[in-house]
Specification:
The chain has five helices and nine strands; from the N terminus they run βααβββαβαβαβββ. By secondary structure, the chain is of the alpha+beta class. The strands form two sheets. A seven-stranded mixed beta sheet has the order 1-2-3-4-5-9-6, with helices on both faces. The longest helix has 13 residues.
């Protein structure tokens, strides 16, 4: 049975999982302390996500990760549905930033996220190494927005 818990202490204990979605620890350190961390359990830990408040009307899904052996089983979908419902009365919209990878963009679009804007050269300017998703080098950060 799936259960989702909000984690308020010792958030760094989930670093191994967070690094799957954001592979540079100092970048995670910028949003994890102030972020809401949610952990999804199905017997044991399967997925996590971090949500930060951007302003009075907007929050951002900063990180969502599922252990590779559990991907494709609906855990990411369960987390996105949970946080969408959790924040729908608190914020008017939710952002998510990701690389320009068709499968990842399609994943978010199925939840109603649409492209909002992009930050040119985000990955090349902010990470100390090149970032790849499969064989695609991430360069620009593509932001998608979903209204509540």
């Amino acid at each position: 049975m799936i259960r989702i818990e909000k984690i308020t202490e010792n958030k760094k204990q989930f670093l191994d999982l967070l690094l799957l979605a954001d592979e540079q620890e100092d970048m995670i350190d910028k949003y994890l302390p102030d972020g809401d961390l949610f952990a999804l359990y199905d017997d044991d830990l399967k997925s996590v996500c971090v949500v930060n408040q951007i302003d009075r009307d907007t929050c951002e899904l900063k990180n969502i990760a599922t252990y590779p052996e559990h991907q494709g089983k609906g855990y990411g979908t369960a987390l996105i549905n949970y946080i969408s419902d959790h924040y729908k009365n608190q914020f008017k919209s939710m952002l998510v930033g990701t690389g320009e990878v068709p499968s990842i963009l399609a994943f978010y679009q199925k939840f109603g996220f649409v492209e909002s804007h992009r930050i040119i050269n985000f990955f090349t300017d902010n990470y100390d190494h090149l970032i790849f998703e499969g064989n695609i080098q991430l360069v620009d950060m593509v932001y998608l927005r979903k209204n509540s």
